[in-house]
Amino acid sequence: MLPQDPLGGTGGTGGTGGTGGTVEPESQYVFVVYNRASGAIHHIHQVVNLPGAEVRDREQMEQTALSYVSPQVREREAADLAVLGVPHRQMERGKFYRVDHERQVLSAVERQR
Question: Which string of b and e fits 27-65 if b means at least 16 CB within 10 Å?
Answer without folding.
Answer: bbbbbbbbbeeebbbbbebebebeeeeeeeeeeebbeeb
